[in-house]
Amino acid sequence: MRADLMQNRTTDYRFDWEKLISFKGNASPYLQYMYARVRSVLQKGDVAYEGFSSTVVPEEPAELALARTLLRFPDVVARAAEDSTPHVLAEHLFAVASEFSRFYTECPVLESEQRQSRLGLCVLTARQLETGLGLMGIEEIERM
Predict the structure, then answer these.
(1) Domain coordinates of the chain in residue numbers?
(2) What is the largest CA-CA distance in the chain?
(3) Which CATH architecture does the domain made up of 2-135 adopt?
(4) How far is CA 98 from CA 83, 115, 129, 143, in A?
(5) What are the start-end ranges of the H helices in 45-139?
(6) Residues ≥6 apart with Cβ < 8 Å to 87
(7) What is the pTM of this model?
(8) Of all residues in the chain, what percent are helix, strand and coil, respectively (each to 5)?
(9) Consecutive sets of 10 residues in the chain, 144 residues long: mean pLDDT of each?
């Protein structure tokens, strides 16, 4: 579970059921929920997730913050693999989820002049969450 993976492997660990099943903060259910939320946006936008491609042109601060966070993924994965530190990947996925939440709150997606660009950000977010969850052995859920 993500709460377990959030721990640095070199620090003491304390088992906590509440933390493991929490829908808030750094927990697997929260990431699964955010993945389902992104997929819901795509479904409402009638987006073919698998083949969707769009130029992303972030303009608003929340779009830029999400895009910058997404761009760090290859370096985060490489660092986590090289150093055997899955918590680095877990922290990144939490940052992606948090930035997506901010983006979704501040930037209308489906009824916007920047619809295609913003849908592109949604697709990139979903793909990154899906890949990251998979790397940590956590199944993504499309509906909650």
Answers:
(1) 2-135
(2) 50
(3) Orthogonal Bundle (1.10)
(4) 25, 21, 12, 19
(5) 61-71, 73-83, 86-106, 115-135
(6) 5, 6, 7, 8, 9, 80
(7) 0.83
(8) 65, 0, 35
(9) 49 61 65 94 91 92 98 97 92 96 96 95 96 91 73
